[in-house]
């Protein structure tokens, strides 16, 4: 029995807690994974970290030892007393009771921070959408432990792009950092996990809402030619869609998953200046 596993069982018993699988609660019990997750974030002593779902504070303690400031966001009230007690020795940790999806970095005077955590799997897409598209102050990097299958989709390249991979790679560069088996959690999930990091995060110089309306139109029928999907979604003639694509040096017969990020951006700009649509 590992020391982290034993400590987790001790904390659960001490505070009379039980993991709720319905809420996606799986506690890390492998210290090597906690260390690798932290190292994958490339933290420095000057960095600020926003932790997604602090839980029992296992990852929080390691983050606090590697960063200047840690804002540990936890939605579940049952964990707040645990965190307050177990993290009392870390003055650089601030515990925030709240929903990470409504967290506003600007209210904490943050101009730069890293987003790190092992969130419930079902939050993955909304987390990326919230912190890349919607927040006023996006993170400098994102390092998460998520479902391996989803992580692999995020890093895909043409001709295997998906709506999700384009949505994430518009903002930064994703890298897979290592697989994590179900045995590293309590209780064990039914899937293999993966540490993924997104770096070089920048806001694109385009109308983001319009960009996403275009890629949603393009991926509405991934197996069909792009001109066909765009014409139907934009309620225009196929010949018009074909000409727009040709103006961007894009073959109208291509499928959406073959376009690069730069080609999607070029298409977005061309469509935004087209007054006939």
UniProtKB/TrEMBL annotation:
<dbReference type="InterPro" id="IPR020598">
    <property type="entry name" value="rRNA_Ade_methylase_Trfase_N"/>
</dbReference>
<dbReference type="InterPro" id="IPR001737">
    <property type="entry name" value="KsgA/Erm"/>
</dbReference>
<feature type="binding site">
    <location>
        <position position="53"/>
    </location>
    <ligand>
        <name>S-adenosyl-L-methionine</name>
    </ligand>
</feature>
<dbReference type="InterPro" id="IPR029063">
    <property type="entry name" value="SAM-dependent_MTases_sf"/>
</dbReference>
<keyword id="KW-0963">Cytoplasm</keyword>
<keyword id="KW-0698">rRNA processing</keyword>
<protein>
    <submittedName>
        <fullName>Ribosomal RNA small subunit methyltransferase A</fullName>
        <ecNumber>2.1.1.182</ecNumber>
    </submittedName>
</protein>
<keyword id="KW-0949">S-adenosyl-L-methionine</keyword>
<keyword id="KW-0489">Methyltransferase</keyword>
<dbReference type="InterPro" id="IPR011530">
    <property type="entry name" value="rRNA_adenine_dimethylase"/>
</dbReference>
<feature type="domain" description="Ribosomal RNA adenine methylase transferase N-terminal">
    <location>
        <begin position="33"/>
        <end position="202"/>
    </location>
</feature>
<keyword id="KW-0694">RNA-binding</keyword>
<keyword id="KW-0808">Transferase</keyword>
<dbReference type="GO" id="GO:0052908">
    <property type="term" value="F:16S rRNA (adenine(1518)-N(6)/adenine(1519)-N(6))-dimethyltransferase activity"/>
</dbReference>
<feature type="binding site">
    <location>
        <position position="99"/>
    </location>
    <ligand>
        <name>S-adenosyl-L-methionine</name>
    </ligand>
</feature>
<dbReference type="GO" id="GO:0005829">
    <property type="term" value="C:cytosol"/>
</dbReference>
<feature type="binding site">
    <location>
        <position position="118"/>
    </location>
    <ligand>
        <name>S-adenosyl-L-methionine</name>
    </ligand>
</feature>
<feature type="binding site">
    <location>
        <position position="28"/>
    </location>
    <ligand>
        <name>S-adenosyl-L-methionine</name>
    </ligand>
</feature>
<dbReference type="Pfam" id="PF00398">
    <property type="entry name" value="RrnaAD"/>
</dbReference>
<dbReference type="GO" id="GO:0003723">
    <property type="term" value="F:RNA binding"/>
</dbReference>
<comment type="similarity">
    <text>Belongs to the class I-like SAM-binding methyltransferase superfamily. rRNA adenine N(6)-methyltransferase family.</text>
</comment>
<dbReference type="InterPro" id="IPR023165">
    <property type="entry name" value="rRNA_Ade_diMease-like_C"/>
</dbReference>
<feature type="binding site">
    <location>
        <position position="74"/>
    </location>
    <ligand>
        <name>S-adenosyl-L-methionine</name>
    </ligand>
</feature>
<feature type="binding site">
    <location>
        <position position="26"/>
    </location>
    <ligand>
        <name>S-adenosyl-L-methionine</name>
    </ligand>
</feature>
């Amino acid at each position: 029995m590992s020391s982290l596993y034993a400590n987790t069982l001790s904390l659960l018993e001490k505070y009379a807690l039980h993991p709720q699988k319905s809420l996606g609660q799986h506690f890390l019990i492998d210290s090597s994974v906690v260390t690798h997750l932290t190292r994958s974030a490339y933290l420095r002593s000057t960095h600020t970290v926003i932790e997604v779902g602090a839980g029992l504070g296992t990852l929080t303690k390691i983050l606090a030892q590697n960063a200047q400031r840690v804002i540990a966001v936890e939605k579940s009230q049952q964990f707040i007393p645990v965190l307050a007690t177990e993290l009392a020795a870390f003055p650089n940790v601030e515990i925030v009771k709240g929903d990470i999806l409504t967290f506003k970095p600007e209210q904490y005077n943050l101009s730069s921070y890293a987003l790190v955590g092992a969130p419930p799997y079902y939050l993955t897409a909304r987390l990326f959408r919230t912190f890349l598209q919607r927040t006023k102050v996006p993170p400098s990097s994102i390092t998460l432990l998520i479902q391996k299958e989803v992580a692999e989709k995020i890093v895909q390249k043409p001709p295997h792009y998906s709506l999700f991979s384009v949505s994430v790679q518009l903002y930064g560069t994703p890298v897979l950092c290592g697989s994590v088996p179900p045995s590293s959690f309590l209780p064990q999930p039914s899937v293999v996990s993966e540490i993924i990091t997104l770096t070089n995060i920048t806001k694109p110089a385009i109308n983001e809402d319009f960009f996403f309306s275009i890629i949603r139109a393009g991926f509405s029928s991934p197996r069909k030619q792009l001109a066909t999907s765009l014409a139907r979604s934009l309620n225009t003639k196929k010949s018009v869609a074909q000409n727009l694509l040709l103006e961007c040096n894009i073959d109208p017969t291509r499928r959406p998953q073959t376009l690069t990020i730069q080609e999607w951006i070029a298409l977005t700009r061309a469509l935004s200046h087209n007054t006939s649509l």
